[in-house]
Each structure stands twice: as C-alpha cells, then as structure tokens.
Design a protein that fits this description.
alpha+beta, six-stranded mixed beta sheet
Length: 298
C-alpha cells in the first residue's frame, strides 16, 4: 500500500523524494552480537544503520536499489574548498536509465569489520538523482544518498549539509546539484551486485517507529508547542533550516525566518508590558517596606 501510494504521488502529482540511507550488512550485524551480563542474554542489533531491504522495497518500482557493502571516504565540493566525510554508508547498486550517479574512491570497510583487511574501491556510486531530464508520465523527482552520519548533529567529522541542500534543490525544483560531481546521464540502467537479504529472526518490529504508527513529525510538533509560533502557517514547517540560502530551500528558510520575526514582533509588546508591571510592583513593595521601618518607634 505504501509503495503504491508513493509511486502515485511521485509519478502523477510531482512529489519530490529525498532518501538518506546508511549501512546494512547481515554478517556485520551478526558480528556485533554481544552477551549482556545484566540480562543474561545475547543481544543482536535489530538492523544496521538503516533498514536497507525495506528501502529497496520502497524504491523497487523505480529500478533503484542499495547494496550491502559498507564504505568510507571523502566527498569533495566542486565549488568550495570543503569536503564531506562519508563515514559508514552503503552504495547504489541499481539505478534507472536517464538518471545520474555520483561515484567516488572509497575504502570498503566491510572486509575490515569481518576479517580486518580493508581495501580501496574505485568509482563507488553513493549519490543518485532521477530523472536527469523531464520524462513523460513521470512528474516527480528522486534523490538518493547512502550515508546519514555526516548529517547528524552528533557527527565529529565534516558535515555534508551542502549535499542535502543540492538534493533538495533537485527534488523540489529540478535544479541539478552543482557542487556534487555527477556522471553523464545514464543511457542504460545501472546494475551491480545482488540485493541484500533481510536479517533472519530480526525483532525490528518491536522498535519500529513506522510500522503500526501513524505518520507524524514529532520535532515539528515540539517546536510549535515550545516556541508557540502559531502565526507560522503549516506549509512553512519543513526541515530546510540547514540551507545556505541558495535555491528553494534557502528561500523557504528565509520565509520561515521572516514569519518567525513577525511572530516575535507580536509577542514583544506584551513581554515588555509584563516586565514593566513586575518592575513597578517590586518598586512599590520595597518603598512600602522602607516606610514601615521608618515608622517603627525607637
């Protein structure tokens, strides 16, 4: 049902989708198994950095799939003297014709995690956009990136929000990312390696925030409740605050900033009135206390 809904929205209504994945390898997951002395049980991770088999199911209708190898390396920004660190991500192993891929030299960390012998891997596709040119009967756009660690606030390496900004510009406005080196438009579908299998016996259903839950954005609700910015319209609440100010994401961020300013302007006079009232009350209290002290007989 979810894949059918997504396909309809992308192909017919022009929905833009950005997928940020992460590593997934059944053998590595099993090797991370450990014995917990507190519970007296063996613990096995429910999944890797991302549930790649589920993402592949979601993207299967478009001929897009992610692999099971784990890669690490650097991505150079074409126009800035900056790099992004690709810490432990997956790769794109299938991609449709008329798409574009971004490939880089990477270290294959899979072998290091399993047998302690990393190896260099050339031309690993880790970013992809589709379609590069407008297609009949396909109104939307898809953008794929294989690692989420550099977009996490907890990362200790170089952030890669400029990559996400470029992918958002493409997904929302069909602007090709200029800072990400991409291949020429694919003239035939790209296919390499076999699809990763699901982890046998995984109890991911116990921890899933997707299956059995209604779609929601908790961070958006939290912001609206704590900041009380009810003057901001619903359509302005999209996670595009990381934009550097260029393209649609930057325009959206500027629009949100202006609305925040308007909300703050409405709140400021009332805040000033409350503070002024509190100051007058404190002054009267101190004056009355001082008067009572002077009236006491010696």
């Amino acid at each position: 049902m979810a894949t059918a809904k997504l396909k309809k929205d992308v192909t017919e209504t022009g929905l833009g989708v950005v997928v940020i994945a992460d590593w997934f390898n059944v053998d590595v997951i099993k090797k991370l198994r450990f014995f917990d002395e507190n519970s007296g049980k063996w613990w096995t991770p429910a999944t890797g950095g991302a549930n790649v088999p589920a993402l592949n199911d979601l993207l299967a209708d478009y001929g897009i799939a992610l692999g099971s190898r784990i890669f690490q390396g650097e991505i150079n920004n074409v126009f800035r003297n900056t790099t992004a660190f690709y810490d432990s991500g997956t790769s794109i192993i299938r991609f449709p014709q008329n798409g574009m891929l971004g490939s880089f030299w990477m270290m294959d960390k899979t072998e290091e995690m399993l047998v302690g012998a990393p190896k260099r891997a050339p031309n690993v596709p880790i970013v992809g956009i589709y379609p590069a040119d407008p297609q009949p009967n396909f109104a939307g756009r898809l953008a794929i990136f294989g690692d989420s660690s550099c977009m996490d606030d907890a990362t200790v390496r170089q952030e890669c929000h400029w990559i996400l900004d470029g992918l958002l510009d493409f997904a929302t406005s069909a602007i090709l990312p200029q800072s990400i080196p991409l291949s020429a438009t694919l003239t035939a579908p790209y296919s390499e390696d076999s699809l990763p299998e699901r982890l046998p016996g995984s109890d991911i259903l116990k921890f899933s925030h997707v299956i059995g839950h209604s779609p929601q954005c908790e961070s958006r609700q939290f912001l609206r409740q704590t900041q009380n910015l009810t003057a901001i319209p619903e359509e302005a609440w999209y996670p595009a605050f990381y934009s550097d100010g260029h393209g649609p994401a930057g325009q959206l961020r500027e629009g949100i900033s202006s609305r925040v300013g308007q909300a703050q302007e409405k709140v400021f006079p009332w805040t000033l009135l409350v503070l002024l009232s509190a100051g007058i009350a404190i002054a009267l209290y101190r004056w009355k206390s001082a008067s009572n002290v002077r009236r006491e007989p010696v």
